[in-house]
Amino acid sequence: SMSEKNIERSSRLKNHFWPAMTLALVAMFFAKESWLRGASLNDPKAAARTVTPRGELMAEEKSTIALFKQASPAVVNITVLGVERDLFSLNQYQIPQGTGSGFVWDTTGNIITNFHVIQNADAAQVTLADQSNWKARVVGAAPDKDLAVLKIDAPASKLHPIPIGTSKDLQVGQSVFAIGNPFGLDQTLTTGVISALNREIESVTRRPIQGVIQSDAAINPGNSGGPLLDSAGRLIGVNTAIYSPSGTSAGIGFAIPVDTVNRIVPELIRSGKLTRPGLGIQIADEQISQRLGVSGVLVVDVVRGSAAARAGIQPTRRDAQGRVRLGDVITAIDGKKIESPNDLYLALDKYKVGDAISVTSSRDGRTVQTKLTLEAVQ
Predict the structure, then answer these.
(1) Residue 153 exposed, middle or buried by CB count within 10 Å (0-12, 13-18, 19+)
(2) Is residue 5 over pLDDT 80?
(3) Distance CA 81, CA 96 (A)
(4) pLDDT band at residue 329 using 50, 70 and 90 as cut-offs
């Protein structure tokens, strides 16, 4: 029958196919062996080639090398430690949890880094450029600005403060140099140009950091907290984040501008924390306001005795029937429109504690103007 003939033909093909395939593979193996073992091609007299003299380094290269040599002693490695307890002996052990970079601020031992580098640490250790290790203590932190100050008890002779520049006159296109010490072994240098100014990024507290410098100098996580320098070797920013879903450098780096750093760090050294001007209110998340159809910033609660309480700003509350009565919705500060919590934070950042402001709110469908004096909030 036809099916029996097909089976017989298929069987014959199989019987011919596998031996042929085996022979082909064996032939390929020996062909590869002969290709790799070209013994007749070897030359016993072969020697290293003569090095071609390169001449002088370019002026730009020389200046970059000089800049790196000058600045690198100021750059430190920060090892973050976590405490683990042995369940049987109850002994505590410090376990390395990650590393970041930082730099020497002054000869008294203050070290600057990002807040997010030390955020979850139980302890930290600083490795200076000369490989000496020092136990670090936290002097102060400003999570809203992603900055922290650590202190080590190293002698002044080992501390090389970084020269301070300014960020107010930076221009797109000028050269920048990012130095890090990600592993505590040696410093790394990446170079680039300023690609944008006055960028805005989000801190770990979700508050916006304004005036951020954007460059194309590669900044990887271990370099976070290290300095960004101009071509004169001066600090112009603190490298703080990378724009990358994978967590590796994606060609865009951000740095907190040095003018912000130079304003905040002395305050952290003096008092350990950054006081910022506020109203004394708690506000609703933007998503809640949007869900309620509210345009502006909804006041959820008012801190007792605060500037907002004294000015009569109304919180959200429930009435006797258990219905939610929305509080004031802030729509402007000194006439500047406020549409979101971000707008409010950015507006308040332009003031200082003790400044008098005018708050425009919507209350029960009518517009209310309130004057109050900003107070220090944490």
Answers:
(1) exposed
(2) no
(3) 4
(4) very high
Residues carrying an active site annotation: 116, 146, 224
What is the C-alpha separation between 78 and 126, in angstroms, rounded? 5
Lowest-pLDDT range, 52-66, 79-93, 112-126, 188-202?
79-93
Percentage with pLDDT > 70 across the chain? 84
3-state SS class at 359: strand
Closest CA relative to residue 101, chosen from 119, 123, 120, 127: 127
- Tokens representing 343 are 């707008």
As a whole number of angstroms, the distance between CA 115 and CA 203 comes to 9
| C-alpha to C-alpha distance for 166 and 150, rounded to whole angstroms | 22
Give the pLDDT band (50/70/90) at residue 92: very low
Contact between 102 and 112 under an 8 Å Cβ cutoff? The reply is: yes
Which stretches of the chain are DSSP H helices? 2-36, 59-71, 115-118, 258-271, 286-292, 307-311, 341-348
DSSP conformation letters of 63-77: HHHHHHHHHGGGEEE
Q: Is 61 helix (H, G, I), strand (E, B) or coil?
A: helix
Q: Binning pLDDT at 50, 70 and 90, where does residue 83 land? A: low
Q: Which residue is associated with the tokens 């970041």?
A: 100
